[in-house]
Specification:
Layout: H1 7-12, E1 21-24, E2 29-32, E3 40-41, H2 45-48, H3 55-70, E4 73-82, E5 90-100, E6 119-123, E7 126-127, E8 130-141, H4 151-168, E9 172-177, E10 179-180, E11 188-189, E12 199-205, H5 221-226, E13 230-234, H6 244-248, E14 252-255, E15 259-273, E16 278-282
Parallel strand pairs: 8-9, 9-12, 10-11, 12-13
Antiparallel strand pairs: 1-2, 1-3, 4-5, 6-16, 7-13, 8-15, 14-15, 15-16
């Protein structure tokens, strides 16, 4: 199990030998290791720079092997267990490998593109890259009457609409409050991926009464990347707002107590600039 302790406590347990550097105030420099007295800095320099274990070589080898096997760039998760008593070496464990399907399209979104009368929403915290102009369905949680205590019911309502749209072969924009896929209902909507699998663009927005750390797609990272789903994070105190007035004026296709599905007469224009982390969605 894991426990949260201060660096001073970890030093007493002798687990920092291969992980830290030390600030030398007399010479105003950072020294690798713990031989000097002074504040400890968690830099992993003994591993990365001194090669106490061949981590760089291991990662390069595994990345090359996995990318050749899967045919795409990959993201790896791994863990290292260092030998006890400061002995060199340890055990490397590969936990997970995920393909990273990244659009090669060059999409540029400038700061001035994030504001304007046609902007439905914009964010400077996005995941993905590319442009879309074929999304005419929007599924969103209704701001009025939203109740995080009913998050399981909201998940069921999303599932019903998603099932209908998937059957039609229609992709959609999904806008929710809080963390999507959380296991803690007060922090967001506890859905599984199959309940929202038709969403091509997902927006997580916080609320003044639900000021949680947004997931940025972490709960469904593999699905988001492999399906090339655009992911927008939008905090309630951001200067960029959702145009709820325009949204609520659109014709309703299906509505439940907490969720509304609208069908637009003109498709949305979605642009995601992965290089700069900016994205914008405009209506016609």
């Amino acid at each position: 199990y894991l426990i949260n302790v201060k660096l001073q406590d970890a030093e007493k347990d002798e687990v920092l030998e291969n992980l830290v550097s030390t600030y030398d105030p007399q010479n105003d420099r950072i020294v690798i290791g713990m031989t000097n007295r002074g504040p400890r800095l968690l830099t992993f320099a003994p591993i990365l720079d001194l090669g106490e274990i061949p981590l760089n070589d291991i990662i390069r080898y595994l990345l090359k092997l996995c990318e050749e096997t899967m045919g795409h760039q990959v993201e790896m998760e791994f863990a290292i267990t260092l030998n006890a008593d400061g002995e060199p070496g340890g055990h490397f464990g590969l936990l997970q490998v995920r393909p990273m399907f990244v659009s090669r399209a060059i999409v540029k979104v400038d700061q001035e593109d994030l504001d304007g009368p046609q902007v439905l929403l914009a964010s400077e915290d996005v995941l993905g890259n590319g442009a879309m102009n074929n999304i005419s369905n929007v599924v969103y949680l209704k701001r009025a009457g939203f109740d995080e205590k009913e998050s399981h019911l909201i998940a069921s309502e999303l599932e019903v609409i998603n099932h209908s749209l998937v059957a039609e072969g229609a992709q959609y924009l999904l806008i929710v409050f809080g963390r999507l896929g959380t296991t803690d209902p007060p922090f967001g909507i506890p859905v599984n991926w199959w309940q929202i699998s038709g969403a091509k663009v997902i927006v997580e927005a916080s609320l003044p009464e639900m000021n949680v750390e947004l997931s940025q797609g972490s709960h469904f990272f593999h699905n988001v990347i492999s399906s090339q789903v655009g992911y927008f994070s939008l905090k309630h105190f951001s200067k960029h707002k959702i145009d709820w007035e325009w949204m609520n004026q659109q014709p309703t296709k299906k509505e439940s107590p907490f969720v509304r599905h609208v069908k637009l007469t003109s498709p949305l224009q979605v642009k995601i600039d992965g290089a700069h982390g900016r994205g914008v969605i405009c209506h016609g």
